[in-house]
Amino acid sequence: MAERLVSLTIYNMEKKALFINGSARRDRGITYRLSTKVREGLESEGYEVEYIHLVDLNINFCEGCVSEDGSLCNPKRCLEGKLNDDFKIVMDKMLKRDIIVFLSPVYWYSMSGRMKNLIERLTSLENVGKMLDGKIGGFVVTAQEDGAMMTILQLMGTLNDMGFLFPPYAFTYSVNFLDPLQDKEAVEYALRLGKNLAKMHRLVKGNKWV
Length: 210
Ligand SMILES: Cc1cc2nc3c(=O)[nH]c(=O)nc-3n(C[C@H](O)[C@H](O)[C@H](O)COP(=O)(O)O)c2cc1C
Fold this sequence. Notes:
Elements (H helix, E strand, L loop, with lengths): L1 H11 L3 E6 L8 H14 L4 E6 L11 H4 L6 H5 L7 H10 L2 E7 L7 H9 L1 H5 L8 E8 L4 H14 L9 E5 L8 H23 L4
Helix pairs in contact: 2-9
Bound molecules: flavin mononucleotide.
């Protein structure tokens, strides 16, 4: 009986993942290309993937309200007034999805400015009601030389502090490959990441690591 209930829960889960891409080169960049292998891993588990390309959106800088007075930093305020912008598009999709993968090229040993800008705006979701608690995250990072692991760890630590969980092998990165699909290790990690995100989802929502 319990086994049947678990199967039913898994059956009813929405199998959709959100990929948020911080690359300036949208879907013609190296970062996007590597992410297609994470998508493949998820698709092999029956999941659909939707992309948000931050380069398509106009997201203003965080105004730093939380430093003024904690209660001023909340989604309502972050969506209105001076900050009225495309943050709502990202926020709504993030709140809807359980699995969220962050894609970024390394820009000066860190994530891209677009990604950092979004992360700062997410403060309003964390600050009131811990709205990202229990989301399942993963990372796709590309670089020419150095800074990939540093970027992943920055993102991972920060997002964990906002409530994210991560599966084993929560990231893939490729360094110095113009075509990251030629980077066998990165591809292997990407496929594994896709599958592990699905496994983690089933574990968290259906109580089953399968
Ligand atoms: C502004 C800027 C800064 C960069 N800084 C770094 C860096 O610090 N370390 C590095 O290895 N590559 C750096 N790169 C190279 C990119 O990380 C690399 O080419 C990446 O794979 C590009 O991804 P994309 O094709 O999705 O744009 C930088 C590129 C740009 C545009």
